[in-house]
Amino acid sequence: MAINGNRPLLPPPTKSLSARVLLMTIIFVMLAEVLIYAPSAGRFRYEYLRDRLATAHVAVLALLATPDYMVSESLQAELLQHAGAYIIGLKRPDGVKLMMHAKAGVPTIDANFDLTERSFFALIGDAFATIAHPANRVLRVVGPSPKIPQATVEIVIDEAPMRSALLDYSERVLALSIVISLITASLVYFSLQWMMIRPMRRLTESMVAFRGDPENASTQGKLSRRSDEIGVAERELVQMQAGLR
Asked: What is the DSSP letter of 197?
């Protein structure tokens, strides 16, 4: 720290202790948000697929209304379009198996997912894998029906709509994280500025001024009424200055 006469040249605001505290607060809050986002993204993807299974279950139940478990091609196409699936299969607890599939053919399946296997890190990895694939993939998803847990539903769907929904969710989480980090950082910054930074600056100015002109009584600091460590340091500095003088 340079000295100009008796006046200390304190560091600029961008290099001050308060600026470093503000930056560290923002970084730590954003890091905490990332740690929260990762499992929430995995959970969002899992719930999205569960919703698709539930919709598919409802759609395939239309087959039960017919004697031979078959509907017209137009109605089947409409049900598949509503469910957003190429194939819907249902295995009921009573052993009845129902299936609908697109007449135009089913694309090659790129990945298979079983929702009965729900490990924590697997869900997170699958969510980030979905985000990392810009091109559409065709997914085969199998899992218990949210409507009847004893029933098993199988669907073949495009990944692109799920990726779009996951990206929208991520953007909302990111925007909320930025707002939270800025508010938190601002509150911490002003609190530390009032409780620590300003008293530390006064201590620094008093020490530098005393060093420049130790015989000048006006450079002596004022006794502090604070009961914390900074208050003790301020009182000890005043007593040290008086003793040396």
From this structure: I
The answer to whether the pTM exceeds 0.90 is no
CA angle 163, 165, 168 (to 5 degrees): 110
Q: Say how many CA atoms lie within 13 Å of 169 toward its Cβ.
A: 21
- Average pLDDT over the chain reads 83
Q: Is 49 within 8 Å of 81 (Cβ atoms)? A: no
CA distance 187 to 183: 6
Q: For 194, which DSSP code? A: I
Any bridge partners for residue 106, and if so which?
none
Tens of pLDDT along 160-209?
999 999 999 999 988 888 888 788 878 877 887 777 777 777 777 777 77
* Cα gap 36→177, rounded to integer Å: 10
Give the orientation angle of helix 17-60 with respect to helix 120-132, to 10 degrees.
90
- Of 154, 157, 156, 164, nearest to 133 by C-alpha is 164
Tokens of 80: 């598949």
Alpha-carbon distance of 159 to 188, in angstroms, equals 42
What CA–CA distance (Å, rounded) separates 47 from 177? 22
pLDDT digits (tens, 9 = 90+) for 20-72: 877 887 788 778 888 888 999 999 999 999 999 999 999 998 888 787 778 88
Question: Which residues are CB-neighbours of 103 under 8 A, at least 6 positions away?
Answer: 73, 76, 77
β-bridge pairing 138-144 and 111-114:
parallel
Q: What is the full DSSP assignment across 8-19?
A: E-PPPGGGSHHH
Amino acid, res. 195: M
